[in-house]
Amino acid sequence: MTISNGSNGEKKQSPEIVSFGEMLIDFVPNVSGVSLAESPGFVKAPGGAPANVACAITKHGGSSAFIGKFGDDEFGHMLVNILKANGVNSDGVCFDQDARTALAFVTLKKNGEREFMFYRNPSADMLLKESELNFDLIKQSKVFHYGSISLITEPCRSAHLVAMKAAKEAGVLLSYDPNVRLPLWSSPKACREGIMSIWKEADFIKVSDDEVAFLTEGDAEDEDNVLSLWFDGLKLLVVTDGEKGCRYFTKNFKGKVSGFAVDTIDTTGAGDSFVGAFLYSVAKDSSIFEDEAKLKEVLTFANACGALATIQKGAIPALPTTSAALELISKSKST
């Protein structure tokens, strides 16, 4: 399917994967293992899970678009330019003259894990309205991907729900990575309920082991506990287990795929790199959900991409290419 770009009569391909939600600037300490107050300086890095996923897809030669709202400020325009520089379609982007682009300060602890402090009061992404949605992008895609941060406040929550409904009615695959960010919600209970409020709409869900523990209030290693998140109609549930790899669950089969050991510096964007690699593969071949051998191959590729995203600071700057991921897979087979 093609859409006209409206300028010189040329045709351009509709993006296969549309990411919906927030894009912001992560300020990452330039020294690991210190608190925000102790950090002598910060590295400015573009971030926001849905935007990271959109950029991860184009790194592999896939086509993606981002739908979201930015402040009409220098940071907002900088972020949209980063999307464009990464080959992401920005036809679904809009600007707000009265709200700022969101910022996050991300503390890297000694093990590379993160703590967040957000500046959103409210930020422009929270103010996206249904009337500002680009429905053509959504309906003409193969996959519509989203998180949970866009569910926190109105009017963005309503826009999110309408966008999901439009995608579902158009036969588009719904991909959900909840990305638990407790500091943004009024309480852990509100976060859990908000995330679960749209749980049963998705075709594919990716959660981390920590998110399983949070959502179920139980042991992420316990398979029965994980399966409490399953529902009829779900095509695939993936639980990422950090460097250990991931577990997968479908209606007909389940299993584990090993991860890759790398020298981790910063885990920011690792899950998004994983999801982007996976969705890129799904857009090429949706039979992955029914073919266990294909699924394991794709999840191995996604695990490699997730691992490689941790070897430098920031999210988008650290996203790996296909060749880098295949090289890591090849090396691990030969050792």
From TrEMBL:
Record-level GO cellular component terms: cytosol
TM helices/strands, residue ranges: none
Swiss-Prot/TrEMBL keywords: ATP-binding, Carbohydrate metabolism, Kinase, Nucleotide-binding, Transferase
Residues of the Carbohydrate kinase PfkB domain: 16-321
Enzyme Commission identifier(s): 2.7.1.4
Lineage: superkingdom: Eukaryota
EC top class named in words: transferase
Recorded metabolic or biological pathway in which this protein acts: Glycan biosynthesis; starch biosynthesis
Entry's Gene Ontology molecular function annotations: ATP binding; fructokinase activity
GO terms of biological process kind: fructose metabolic process
Signal peptide: none
Catalytic activity: D-fructose + ATP = D-fructose 6-phosphate + ADP + H(+)
The keyword Nucleotide-binding belongs to this UniProt entry's keyword annotation: yes
Family classification: Belongs to the carbohydrate kinase PfkB family.
Protein name per Swiss-Prot or TrEMBL: fructokinase
Organism: Aquilegia coerulea (Rocky mountain columbine)
